[in-house]
């Protein structure tokens, strides 16, 4: 590898790999942070069905069952 006309050989190759790994790690951390924020916003607005609206439709569930064989 050559940078600004200077050839560094194996040490320059190693530095390039370390730099690339660092960039990849930063990108993964940013993606993870975005994913966590998305999950947090999704759970903020989630309301269990049992706590919403009228319970009249579910209060009698299972009390009037007709089984014909």
Which features would summarize this protein structure in a list?
69 residues; mainly alpha; 57% helix; Motility protein YjfB-like
Describe the fold and architecture:
Residues 24-69 are annotated as: Disordered. Residues 43-69 have a biased composition (Polar residues). This is Motility protein YjfB-like. It comes from Marinomonas colpomeniae. Residues 24-42 have a biased composition (Low complexity). With 69 residues, the chain is mainly alpha-helical. It contains 2 helices and 2 strands. It has helices spanning 10-44, 56-59; strands at residues 2-3, 6-7. It has a two-stranded antiparallel ribbon with strand order 1-2. It starts with a strand and ends in a 10-residue tail after the last helix. The model has no long low-confidence stretch (mean pLDDT 76).
Quick take:
The chain is mainly alpha-helical and 69 residues long. Helix content is 57%, strand content 6%. It is built from two helices and two strands.
